Amino acid sequence: MTSKEISELFAEAIVTIVLLILLNIAIIVIFSSIVNHFPSLNDAIFETRNSFVRNFDSTIFLSGRNLVIPLFIILDTLILYWRLIRRYRQMQLRHIITELHYIASGNYDHRIPFELSGDLSRIVTSINGLVDSTVAAIEEERRIEQSKDELITNVSHDIRTPLTSIIGYLGLIEDRQYRSEEDLLKYTHTAYVKAKQMTSLVEDLFEYTKVRQPGVPIHTMNFDMVQLLEQLAIEFELEASRKGIDIQVVTSAPQLLMDGDTDKLVRVFNNLITNALKYGKGATLILIEIEKVGTEAIIRVKNNGKMIPKHSLDSLFNRFYRVEESRSQETGGTGLGLAISQSIIALHGGYIYAQSNQDWTSFIIHLPLSHVKRTKKSENS
């Protein structure tokens, strides 16, 4: 409390005491006047007083002042205490409002520091909680805006590079700046390759935004995960053999039935195997391990190639992130594959993470065997 507030409370006490004294005197005068005008009432009071004297065997009741004055003092004290407490509460509320205005002026890192009791304590706690949630919402909004800006920047960069090449080579053809048909075919082939890169980026971007939408449909069916992954391994055998890599599927059981959207899950495993073939430098083996643990299927796609650095491992599932920092279209994809995979796995109620050491680089997927439709709350999380 400030000195001004203490003075205010003191003045309140003085004014209240004066008013109570005047009120007490007025009550006594009015009561005496009534008693004097009604003799029967005076007799009744006299008899009542004598009855108290006989019953309690005390002469304290012979004088009315022995009862009236203590009664007035008790009532006046209660009234004085009530008025001072009320004024003190008003001062506390005034402080809370001042603090709230200070926070509302933009000082969102400030919190009301008072430790109060009763309803005011709950009010302070609610205000601080509201400020916390508001700040969190503002920070989330800023993060979303920053994410959108990064998305636009990355898409613009990745589209501009092949588009510049396409325009350049088509410009050479338009101006007939080629010496032979071989040059013409070279220019058109380069423009075609760059156009396919742009198509791949647009398709990945569309897929990424689609799987990130709340309420995206999951067309589940019961299927055999072992059979699905063995079929995928066969499809990649030729490409892997050209790179001197062997693909093996290792499973603890010949069959693992589960629910899921096979089209979306094939996209996930295609991406993981493709990444292992493209980025697993020095790898000679890709292992796909399938295991059932409780109500989950755990799938590991691992290769014995070059270890992924720790700082890159933490960012693998960020959209547009690539381990190679040059962001070259020749050595890297769109940088959306793992982000899409993570979203698809999340749609199935599972999760994915990566581990890497000198021996193995592994992508581990946990998927529930039975698909449970997500609630709206989980979709928004």
Automatic annotation (TrEMBL):
<keyword id="KW-0472">Membrane</keyword>
<keyword id="KW-0812">Transmembrane</keyword>
<keyword id="KW-0067">ATP-binding</keyword>
<dbReference type="InterPro" id="IPR003594">
    <property type="entry name" value="HATPase_dom"/>
</dbReference>
<keyword id="KW-0808">Transferase</keyword>
<dbReference type="GO" id="GO:0000155">
    <property type="term" value="F:phosphorelay sensor kinase activity"/>
</dbReference>
<feature type="domain" description="Histidine kinase">
    <location>
        <begin position="154"/>
        <end position="371"/>
    </location>
</feature>
<protein>
    <recommendedName>
        <fullName>histidine kinase</fullName>
        <ecNumber>2.7.13.3</ecNumber>
    </recommendedName>
</protein>
<dbReference type="InterPro" id="IPR050398">
    <property type="entry name" value="HssS/ArlS-like"/>
</dbReference>
<dbReference type="InterPro" id="IPR036890">
    <property type="entry name" value="HATPase_C_sf"/>
</dbReference>
<feature type="transmembrane region" description="Helical">
    <location>
        <begin position="9"/>
        <end position="34"/>
    </location>
</feature>
<feature type="transmembrane region" description="Helical">
    <location>
        <begin position="67"/>
        <end position="85"/>
    </location>
</feature>
<dbReference type="InterPro" id="IPR004358">
    <property type="entry name" value="Sig_transdc_His_kin-like_C"/>
</dbReference>
<dbReference type="InterPro" id="IPR005467">
    <property type="entry name" value="His_kinase_dom"/>
</dbReference>
<dbReference type="InterPro" id="IPR036097">
    <property type="entry name" value="HisK_dim/P_sf"/>
</dbReference>
<feature type="domain" description="HAMP">
    <location>
        <begin position="87"/>
        <end position="139"/>
    </location>
</feature>
<keyword id="KW-1003">Cell membrane</keyword>
<dbReference type="Pfam" id="PF02518">
    <property type="entry name" value="HATPase_c"/>
</dbReference>
<dbReference type="Pfam" id="PF00512">
    <property type="entry name" value="HisKA"/>
</dbReference>
<dbReference type="InterPro" id="IPR003660">
    <property type="entry name" value="HAMP_dom"/>
</dbReference>
<dbReference type="GO" id="GO:0005524">
    <property type="term" value="F:ATP binding"/>
</dbReference>
<keyword id="KW-0902">Two-component regulatory system</keyword>
<keyword id="KW-0547">Nucleotide-binding</keyword>
<keyword id="KW-0597">Phosphoprotein</keyword>
<dbReference type="InterPro" id="IPR003661">
    <property type="entry name" value="HisK_dim/P_dom"/>
</dbReference>
<keyword id="KW-1133">Transmembrane helix</keyword>
<keyword id="KW-0418">Kinase</keyword>
<dbReference type="GO" id="GO:0005886">
    <property type="term" value="C:plasma membrane"/>
</dbReference>
